[in-house]
Predict the 3D structure of the following.
Amino acid sequence: MTLKKTRKENYPEWYQCVVSEADMAENSSSPGCMVIKPWGYGLWERIRDVFDEKIKSTDHENCYFPMFIPLSFFQKEAEHVDGFAKEMAVVTHSRLSMKDGKLVPDSKLEEPLIVRPTSEAIIADSFSKWIKSYRDLPVLVNQWANVVRWEMRPRLFLRTREFLWQEGHTAHASAGEAEEETKRMLEAYRELCEDTLAMPVLVGRKPEHEKFPGAVDTYCVEAMMQDGKALQAGTSHFLGQNFAKSANITFINKQNQPEYAYTTSWGVSTRLIGGVIMTHADDEGMVVPPKIAPYQIVIIPVVKNPADEDAVMAYIDGIRKELSAQTPFGEKIRIKLDKRNKASVDKFWEWTRKGAPIILEIGKRDADANNLMVKERLKFGTDEAKQILSKDEFVASVAARLEQIQKQMFQKAKDRLFANIRTDIVTPEAFKAYFEQSNEWIEDGLQGKVAFVRGKWSGDPQSEELLKAMKITIRCIPFDQSGTQGVCLLTGKPATMDVIYARSY
């Protein structure tokens, strides 16, 4: 029972169908915003919990900063303001008054307040108060918050005017220490994407024209979606002394001299959920990696005769107790018993759409035989999608089964990624012809029409206009440079730098 639109028929509409049918989110009556429903928010909670543990294990501490930032704070950093100016929401009045039967803004603020699009400016202000000596460094903080960016073309999870994220901010005594921090957190993002989300990524540095406003260097992790487009899954910024100078973050160094601190910032958002959808979902709906599934196992009682209910539920209670002792990925298993007054087939399809990793259907016949029906979401559509197993066999294998599903999901996505990075395009003519084709779903990990091209770039500023004309971007400059001589795929000039070209979200 496929969705209303398949990946091959209409990929953008398929994406919307997955979000809707999995009951993950919906458009809000507040324009450009979304309501994240329990299953979608459950995914975010799992991502948050896993990464929060990583943040704390690397000596960062959580805190919270105001969402209203004085306009003057942004004006201190011209490049930063210019980069976000078109996306900023501005508060100019502090209250409403009734006039002629209508509510109108009243009591104009002395200074406009920006609703947080990112927090470098306000956090730099606090750092300037906290840091006096090299003994106060490093400062390593993170906040889980919401931000507002006035997107013109909202899309659930991918681009909405308000979204959730974490943003880390640090201050250091030396450039080398700050750069090390930037790359350390980039690696943390790679681990989050690959080990937790089963979403393979490419790692590298952004070109000059794609850097975060005000940064010295921006590093990123880039994922490939099933239609071959790129999704920026996380960024980590080395800010140098730029924000320190604008906010006067100074300290007395070991030589007893005043010096500006070196700062970093890094973040990921609910956009990761959009990435998980477009990496793993299929034409039947969502497929959730077990590590972030709010429920790794869903149990559906099948009671056709009311007289059998007590026996079935008693059997299920026993199974739940045995399963609760299992620890896939070193943590307690998450189980949902769906006791709603709905037909079992309807409940099965709901959880299939949501992408629950394992669904158990248990009836009187199963209870009598000490068996259960096991349905694995990842194998849906194959002969192995459902199995009748003994209770003992399933309980003994469940941890390994979930861990295997996680590995298989990552490997499938990794195979798709590396099968669709073209390295054989070496002339501007072939490059242009390649990107004149349309993106489409990459069937079963096989090569599609358009995805990633790894090729040369001269770094010539005029190439930026060529990129805009072709509606493609340079996603990153990979760390693993070949160092070979070639031809820039945009300008035809000699070039040695390898970059990843792609269309993107």
Observations:
- The mean pLDDT is 95.
